[in-house]
Amino acid sequence: GAGVSQSPSNKVTEKGKDVELRCDPISGHTALYWYRQSLGQGLEFLIYFQGNSAPDKSGLPSDRFSAERTGGSVSTLTIQRTQQEDSAVYLCASSSTGGRGGYTFGSGTRLTVV
Amino acid sequence: AQSVAQPEDQVNVAEGNPLTVKCTYSVSGNPYLFWYVQYPNRGLQFLLKYITGDNLVKGSYGFEAEFNKSQTSFHLKKPSALVSDSALYFCAVSSPSGGSYIPTFGRGTSLIVHP
User: Nearest Cβ partner of A42 from B32, B45, B107?
Assistant: First the structure.
């Protein structure tokens, strides 16, 4: 597509439930990134996918968080047993290899855990 | 490890005056530097980048930034601010030559342009 698409745009869930967030990157972009933006905070790196290589999961805050990228395209970020501190905006970005062209961000998913 | 510092949480400027949003960075290799802008309830929009070449780079909406290697800075500037420039601005760095393709972002600076 023309841009990075994220869905849903908003998600309200009850504490303890699992949620799935979807990211559809720009066609042809081999790199995909997930970030978390909490109120008043900067962007916290979560996970990085590059082509068929093993993802860099070094930013995932706990084992309740996982992500996959199928066919080198669409990615799903899953949060299990959600907690209130998981409430944030989850941003996805994609880029060509190396990021020389910059990073294109989606509009984000605003997750609220009640 | 790479890092970015945006020392000002908020910058206030009158419309028509020049603006500067500060950014300093730390990387182990040659930096790729970026500025992004975020409007309320929106994702980040690309403004400009420094990869190599001229230290002064020009970007969208009349913004420019100067790469200063000795001061490890990449300050964002605009000669004449508009009220519509009011938004949250993020500086980011990556360093493929230093081993990290993953961009690190600063905490963001809220720019408020007063009419």
Answer: B107
Give percent of chain A above pLDDT 90: 78
Distance CA A79, CA A28 (A): 27
Between CA B40 and CA B56 the distance in angstroms is 28
What's the 3-state SS for A64-88? CEEEEECCCCCEEEEECCCCHHHCE
Q: How far apart are CA B39 and CA A1, in angstroms?
A: 22
Question: Degrees (nearest 5) of the Cα angle B24, B75, A106?
Answer: 85
Query: Nearest CA to B38 among A50, A24, A35?
Result: A35
Q: Which amino acid is at A96?
A: S
**Model pLDDT for residues B38-72, shown as the tens digit of each residue:** 998 788 999 999 999 999 999 999 999 999 999 99
Give the distance from residue B113's alpha carbon to the nearest chain A alpha carbon, in angstroms. Answer: 19
Report the range of poorest mean pLDDT among A32-36, B70-74, B95-99: B95-99
What confidence tens digit (pLDDT) does each residue in A61-108 have?
999 999 999 887 999 999 999 999 999 999 999 998 777 778 999 999
What is the pLDDT at residue A51? Answer: 86
Distance CA B15, CA B5 (A): 26
Neighbour tally for B112: CB within 10 Å: 13
Structure tokens at B18: 């020049």
Q: Which chain A residue is nearest to residue B43, measuring alpha carbons? A: A107
- Of the candidates A91, A98, A108, which has its C-beta nearest B101's C-beta? A98
**Parallel/antiparallel/unpaired status of strands A10-13 and B109-114:** unpaired
